[in-house]
Sequence to fold (249 residues):
Amino acid sequence: MRKPGVIIVEDESLILKELILTIPWESLNLSVIGSAENGIEGEELIKEKDPDIVITDIRLPGKSGLEMLEAASVDHGIVLSGYTDFKYMQKAIRLGVFDYLQKPVDSDELITSLEKLRDMILSEESSRENLSENQDSIKLPEGIKNHTIRMAIDFIYENYKEAIGLQDIAALTHVSENYISTLFREETGMNFLQFLSIVRINKALPLLKETSMNISEIASETGFPTPGYFTKIFRRFIGKTPTEYRNSL
Fold:
């Protein structure tokens, strides 16, 4: 089984060393592939190594952890913070951060979060197998009984072309962003951003297959903010870039 790669960005060197040395990465089937002590170096390292998971503090020299995650288009982030400021938590949720843990970090809590995130990443990779069996789409959860989540899913399908986020779902369903984030993951087995990304990819697949639209046009048509982000997310789920996928047909 492949070991998902982890990058840790933490400006307190003692905490950084503790995370590297005390978390049982091997038994978790995870591999630490790099670390940095400020947001600028962290962003460069993430773009260079394209890790599966980024663990980061929020307040970092040079660039905040959340700014770094956004600039590097990180899909699977775990945020560590000594601050309980709601605006930080709100932005983390909007970025699709998987978990937000308070410092001092409880090792068991972090390990549990990593196990759940690892399983989610591996489930993403299994979507590639689903695609190989059915070249039209990646399979998404069906038969969701929870009314709130059904409303959220309907909203995604109706508005995937737009710049939508958890705040829109929260407003629609009249619950908090934190609650809808947790409930969405429990009911679908993936977070909001993953679900939205798969819907967009499923809409992009027939455009790649059946039209002559270029990658930028398809990215815009399916709601991805930039062609580069479209390519990165497409490769993460499909295993090929959009161009490679089109050429393979």
